[in-house]
Amino acid sequence: RHALDQMNLLKCCVWETLRMFPPLVLLLRTVLEDLPVGDVVIPAGHVVAVSPKISQRDECWGDPDVFRPERFISEEDDEPSQKHLPESMYIPFGNGRRRCIGEHFGLLQIMTVLSTLLRNYKFTMEDEIPEHHLNEQLVAGPDREVTFTYERITA
């Protein structure tokens, strides 16, 4: 097994961070043909929007505002998984045929960088943790500069 495949806690922490703080707050799609949704029909040509920021904080998550990486551990085999989650509720990379093709590469990059940094450095926040904020392009990030110090861990 690849070393990153064995980092179950790290993978779950990354998934939980993306659940609580998705980088994109709106996913827009044009309806191609009339789409019945409950008692309403969305006409073809209309644009619909879904928000990972809202759906990923739904009560179906149980304590949705609490950081709990273990929610991504499958009870079946005690491995990281998203298969046991409510359908289409975890969508930081979109869903279906328009799901981001860079998802796996992005997760690989995040986990590689984090595992390297956390293994080699000790980090200390200098200020309070900043609030989550949307910029003009509707991409989420901190509302101000994040200041921290780091020191190399020596063996």
Q: Which helices and strands appear, and what pairs or packs with what?
A:
Elements: H1 8-20, E1 27-30, E2 35-37, E3 40-42, E4 47-50, H2 52-55, H3 103-120, E5 121-125, E6 132-134, E7 140-142, E8 148-152
Antiparallel strand pairs: 1-4, 2-3, 5-8, 6-7
Report what the structure shows:
With 155 residues, the protein is an alpha+beta fold. Helices cover 23% and strands 19% of the residues. The protein is built from three helices and eight strands. Strand 2 and strand 3 form a beta hairpin. The protein is globular, with a radius of gyration of 18 Å. 8% of the residues are buried. The model has no long low-confidence stretch (mean pLDDT 88).
